[in-house]
UniProtKB/TrEMBL annotation:
<dbReference type="GO" id="GO:0030328">
    <property type="term" value="P:prenylcysteine catabolic process"/>
</dbReference>
<keyword id="KW-0560">Oxidoreductase</keyword>
<keyword id="KW-0732">Signal</keyword>
<dbReference type="Pfam" id="PF07156">
    <property type="entry name" value="Prenylcys_lyase"/>
</dbReference>
<keyword id="KW-0285">Flavoprotein</keyword>
<dbReference type="InterPro" id="IPR036188">
    <property type="entry name" value="FAD/NAD-bd_sf"/>
</dbReference>
<dbReference type="GO" id="GO:0030327">
    <property type="term" value="P:prenylated protein catabolic process"/>
</dbReference>
<keyword id="KW-0274">FAD</keyword>
<dbReference type="InterPro" id="IPR017046">
    <property type="entry name" value="Prenylcysteine_Oxase1"/>
</dbReference>
<keyword id="KW-0325">Glycoprotein</keyword>
<feature type="domain" description="Prenylcysteine lyase">
    <location>
        <begin position="47"/>
        <end position="306"/>
    </location>
</feature>
<protein>
    <recommendedName>
        <fullName>Prenylcysteine oxidase 1</fullName>
        <ecNumber>1.8.3.5</ecNumber>
    </recommendedName>
</protein>
<comment type="similarity">
    <text>Belongs to the prenylcysteine oxidase family.</text>
</comment>
<keyword id="KW-0458">Lysosome</keyword>
<dbReference type="GO" id="GO:0001735">
    <property type="term" value="F:prenylcysteine oxidase activity"/>
</dbReference>
<dbReference type="GO" id="GO:0005764">
    <property type="term" value="C:lysosome"/>
</dbReference>
<dbReference type="InterPro" id="IPR010795">
    <property type="entry name" value="Prenylcys_lyase"/>
</dbReference>
Amino acid sequence: GAGYEAGGSVIHPLNLHMKHFVKELGLSVAPPQGSLAGVYNGEEFVFEESSWSFINLLKLLWHYGLNPLRMSMWVEDILDKFMRIYRFQMHDYAFSSNERLLHALGGDDFTRLLNQTIDEAMQQAGFSQKFINQVVCPAMRVNYGQGVTIPGFVGAVSLAGVQSGLWSVKGGNKLVCSGLIYSAKAEVIPGTVVSIEPKTRHKRGGDPVNLYEVTYNTSSGLTGDTYDIVIIAAPLGRKMANITFRNFDPPIPEFLNPYHQTITTLVHGRLNTSFFGYQDPQAFHLGAIFTTDNPKLFINSLGVVS
């Protein structure tokens, strides 16, 4: 059957790591799939894209003035500062908290974005409420299944996803992951991590070595091993990863913040265009439908994948 990537399916042109991995692994870039988009508010389309870029420009100016251009510049400024992260990584520089990392990248502007919503941040930056409701909110809904009450920094970075130049890997972005595992000759253990505990090993005539004992559950039962470094790439809530951190000093606190679940459903069939006010399916040319914040709507977005 056919394979479809429903999450993390596009890559930003400033993602230098992915560019490097694709080149090193000898993978190819897939040609972008162009489809027209529209924004639906539950009653009508407040914006419909045209196949003519000149007409789109006029539509954007008519509906939102210079807000789209200003947003592009605003997001570009944030990304330019965020790009400093590559310099820190090049020199193996690490930070003890997200706040310190973001402050090093963008100063008080970045840390302020952590403590306000994207709605508040963009209103403060002078964007119109109409533009936020009809352009920014649909972008948040398609990315996160949430509105403009999400944190400002998350929202600002996700707006990079509406810029041009997005790309993907031919055959699927998953080929980068499998290719890196293979080239690194990494041992993949299919199991569930149960607990992590720091251990100290004393070497004869040398300084003590700090290690981590990882206990995990496999099809063979409970087992474990010791590691120099442990990197956790999983949601740290009890209902998600459910990892117990034993005997850490200071203790690692419980991660109580709940995660928002976003569901992607792949459906084989034809779109009922009359739902969107188009009685003639032949007259409907949109391949992506975004939505504004409307409690009556039961979808966040729709997109044709093949």
